[in-house]
Amino acid sequence: MNTDISSFNQWIEAWDHFYEKEKELVDLDPNAALVSSVSSDGKPNARVILIKDVSQEGFTFYTNYESRKGKELFHNLEGHITWYSRAQGASIRVQGKVKKINTNLSDEYFSSRDRNAQISASISKQSYDVDSREVLDKEFQEFAEAHEGKKIKRPDHWGGNNHYAFKSRSMEKQR
Ligand SMILES: Cc1cc2nc3c(=O)[nH]c(=O)nc-3n(C[C@H](O)[C@H](O)[C@H](O)COP(=O)(O)O)c2cc1C
After folding, report:
1. Please, are residues 1 and 7 in contact by the beta-carbon 8 Å criterion?
2. CATH classification at residue 75
3. Is the Cβ atom of 50 under 6 angstroms away from ligand 1?
4. What is the pairing mode between strands 78-85 and 90-100?
5. Is residue 124 lining ligand 1, measured as CB closer than 6 Å?
6. Tens digit of pLDDT for each residue in 8-17?
7. pTM of the prediction?
8. What is the span of the domain harbouring residue 92?
9. Could you read off the pLDDT of 143-163 as tens digits, one per residue?
10. Do the domain assignments include residue 15?
11. What separation in Å is there between the alpha carbon of 80 and the centre of ligand 1?
């Protein structure tokens, strides 16, 4: 099963080839990938995210602008995604410029999430230590009560600036 991805005319065809197959092979999080960034003092960092959309515009995932990754990706506008398929023995690497997607799309995606996820995103201080699980649960509860029966607006720290699209520059099959 050796696929020469140079035979694909477009990078997105190569992505579709592996990803469509992955969805058949893997039930849990076939869209999981690593996003790498570099801190302002040159230290590399990576973490798992879920890829939510892939188009000619690039790879999109959703996150918190004020998180460590948010700060690191935007200080030099460079990012890297590594997607790995154990089932297919393949790895796809995407290197490119980081940019924000349209805020309307951010709103749309935020409102499509379930209410608990919206509350979590609203109170989340991603990448920062919290005092305890109890403190977080209390904040969650208070927010939920204060917004009972109301539409939850996408928070500024989560919207507009906090979605990134990576323009693909390279992909390869490894083994
Ligand atoms: C399976 C899985 C999926 C995840 N998906 C996301 C995601 O889509 N967006 C996100 O911001 N964090 C996601 N996380 C949490 C990140 O891995 C990370 O812990 C968090 O974003 C803080 O990273 P940072 O401190 O480097 O900014 C996911 C974690 C796991 C294990």
Report:
1. no
2. 2.30.110.10
3. yes
4. antiparallel
5. no
6. 767 778 788 8
7. 0.84
8. 5-111+156-166
9. 999 999 999 988 877 744 433
10. yes
11. 15
